[in-house]
Every structure is written in C-alpha cells, then in structure tokens.
Design brief:
Number of strands: 16
Order of helices and strands: EEHEEHHEEHEHEEEEHEHEEEHE
Bound molecules: 4'-deoxy-4'-aminopyridoxal-5'-phosphate
Number of helices: 8
Radius of gyration: 20 Å
Structural class: alpha+beta
CATH superfamily of the largest domain: D-amino Acid Aminotransferase, subunit A, domain 2
Shape: globular
C-alpha cells in the first residue's frame, strides 16, 4: 500500500502527491515547516509545534489557510491513513503557486502538506558513545537578515554548515553566530554542563528555539538544576564537563569531542544520560502528547 500524503485537504497516494513547479516554496524556499514526532500513536508536543509554525508564518507574512485544530485533525488523519504509530511528521506550508518573481502577493493558494515518514533512528550505541562535533566556517544567519527562530523552507545556511562538517570528518557541525558566540548545530540545539549547572545559548543568540530545548530546560529545572540561557563561547564548551545536542529527531545526543578536544572524561555525561532517560519517559505522557485516536493498538508499519 502506497504512503498517503496530505495536500490541502486531500489524502493522496505518494505517486499522485505533487506540487507545481511554480510553487514559491520550490522557486524561492518561500514557506515554513515543522518536524514533529509521534510515539506509539501519540503526537509529542503537538500544540507547541503548531504554535511555532504559526509564529514562523506570521514573521514571513504567510497566512496559513487552516486553524491549529484543523491542522491537528489533518495530522491525525494522515497518521491513521498510513496506520502509523511511530512516525516523523513533516508539516510544510508553502507560499503556493505564483508567477516568477519574488512578490508573495502573486501567490494565491498556500499549500499545506503533511508527510508521515518512518523515522531512521540513530543507532542506540551512538547514545552511549556520543558524537564529535566541529565548528565550521559558515556562521548562522544574521538574525536581522533571516532570524533562525523562523523555521522557514530555506535551509541553505544549515546545509552549507552540515556539508563543511561532514567534509571535515565530523558527525555534526557547530555554527557560531555573527558575533562569534555559539549558536547551534545544523538541526539541533546545544547544551553544556559545568559545575552542576546547565548552560545553553540564549534564544536570541541566533538559534531556532527548539521544542526539545525547552522540554529539556523544563526537565532540568524540575530536578532542581540551575539552567542558564547565556551567550557562550567555544572556550566555554572546551572546558565543559558534559555537552549534548537536542532535537525532535535526535532527542538528546551526548557530545564527547568538540573541535578535537575531548569533553569531560570522553564519555556520555551523567546528567546527559539522566535527562535522556527522563525525556524518553515523557514521550508517551498524556500530559504532553495527543492521541491520534483509533490507531489500531499494537500495529506497527512493516
Ligand atoms: N535548530 C535547528 C536549526 C533545527 O532545524 C532544529 C530541528 N527542528 C532544532 C534546532 C531543534 O528543534 P526541535 O527541538 O524543535 O526539533
């Protein structure tokens, strides 16, 4: 059975799910998106993701032609149509079809697309061993040019950084902001531990304000750990006791090497692993997840 894709109110088989070559999402990267996960038939932090989508859209003068409630139902329907309990959900809103030329006013019909993909998990070993990251030359977008808090379809800044990191042999690339402070990795936020306190770049230091980041901050505070949202340098990271990345896809990944320097004792940190365990415990908690009802219990996509 072919994967069903939601496009503007219709659930179409993958082969028929098509977007015009005149869509400004394709021509200019004009649009916004979210990456969301469902675990065991429940969608994690759905409201938070949809609120961020609407904020991104507002910042780029894009009116989403559906309400939050309608988007939720559309996501649930797509999950149900594909019988998916565990999924990585890609929600995209493009500017729609227009003439060549930048003016968004020429586009009349924003396209709402929902893809429920299977998620390729990192191997469990990686969460025990940790990864190495490397600072790359490409700096994160200047917030007064294109604020990284807008989750828009133009990811070239991140793609360049990711490629530079991979070419240099690192697993993930670390990006600095225009002032030289630590910003984030190409699709994850960064945290460090020093002296029993948790540090992460301030939300206005040129980063996407990650939903996982906010969740981890909440978990740490709940454990009585002091959390500092600060302007961090590479030096701060080099002398950290622990470091980890956060993101919807990656969850919490320990970092054991930064720019060739070993972090702490070179192993996944104690607090990092504690937070990962607590984070995983939250993923099916009814208080922070929403059920995509009537999914067949026990069904899992082949
Ligand atoms: N930064 C960037 C640039 C990202 O693309 C992502 C993934 N959406 C994140 C951080 C992590 O955000 P979240 O925890 O909301 O997935």
């Amino acid at each position: 059975m072919s994967l069903k894709i939601f496009i503007n109110g219709e659930l179409l088989p993958l082969e028929e799910a098509k977007i015009s070559v005149f869509d400004h999402g394709l021509l200019y990267g004009d649009g916004v998106f979210e990456g969301i996960r469902a675990y065991n038939g429940r969608v994690f932090k759905l409201t938070e993701h949809l609120e961020r989508l609407f904020e991104s859209a507002r910042a780029i003068f894009l009116e989403i032609p559906m309400t939050i409630e309608e988007l939720k139902q559309a996501i649930f329907s797509t999950l149900r149509a594909n019988n998916m309990k565990d999924s990585y959900i890609r929600l995209v809103v493009t500017r729609g079809v227009g003439k060549l030329g930048l003016e968004p006013g020429k586009c009349t019909n924003p396209q709402v697309i929902i893809i429920t993909d299977t998620i390729q998990l990192y191997p469990p070993k990686l969460y025990e061993k940790g990864i190495d990251i490397l600072t790359v030359a490409t700096v994160r977008n200047h917030p007064e040019s294109l604020n990284p808090r807008i989750k828009c379809l133009n990811y070239m800044n991140n793609i360049l950084a990711k490629t530079e990191g991979l070419n240099a042999g690192a697993t993930e690339a670390l990006m600095l902001n225009k002032d030289g402070f630590v910003a984030e990795c190409t699709g994850q936020n960064i945290f460090m531990v020093k002296g029993e306190e948790l540090y992460t770049p301030h939300s206005n230091s040129g980063i996407l304000k990650g939903i996982t980041r906010d969740t981890v901050i909440g978990l740490a505070k709940g454990k009585g750990i002091k959390v500092r949202e600060d302007f961090l340098t590479r030096y701060d990271l080099y002398i950290a006791e622990e470091c980890f990345l956060t993101g919807t896809a990656a969850q919490i990944v320990p970092v054991v090497k930064i720019d060739g320097r070993i972090v702490g004792d070179g192993k996944a940190g104690r607090l990092t692993l504690e937070l990962l365990k607590e984070y995983r415990g939250l993923l099916i908690n009814p208080e922070v997840t929403e059920a995509a009802e009537s999914l067949e219990p026990g069904y899992s996509r082949p």
